[in-house]
Write a structure and sequence with these properties.
single chain; 105 residues; alpha+beta; 4 helices; 45% helix
Length: 105
């Protein structure tokens, strides 16, 4: 069975290299890159600068999980400094069930 990992070239701390990550991780990196308005290379270099005992791909996976966990709440999002908009300019989070929704039968 062929690997689902996707190989892409990036410019990391020590120059151009390739990384093999799951498509979902590449998608998450792209979302983070857009939110933070940085290039993929800048993002990878930032991850490398933070240090991680594992290799580069492991560090990237851990960074992606940490990024979205920190942003999982409004308070966490603000504390992590993600994005350019202050909390008061963001739309309030939608709730799964509104107060006007009829009770299930």
């Amino acid at each position: 069975m062929p690997s689902k990992l996707v190989n892409r070239n990036v410019t990391a701390h020590r120059g151009r290299t390739s990384m093999r990550l799951e498509p979902e991780v590449w998608d998450a990196l792209e979302e983070i890159r857009q939110r933070e308005q940085v290039s993929l290379g800048e993002l990878v270099r930032t991850v490398e600068a933070r240090g991680h005992e594992g290799g580069r791909t492991s560090a990237v996976r851990v960074f992606v999980v940490d990024y979205f966990r920190a942003a999982a709440t409004d308070a966490g999002h603000d504390a992590a400094g993600h994005g350019a908009l202050p909390a008061r300019q963001r739309r309030p989070a939608q709730t799964a069930v509104s107060a006007e929704a009829p009770a299930p039968v």
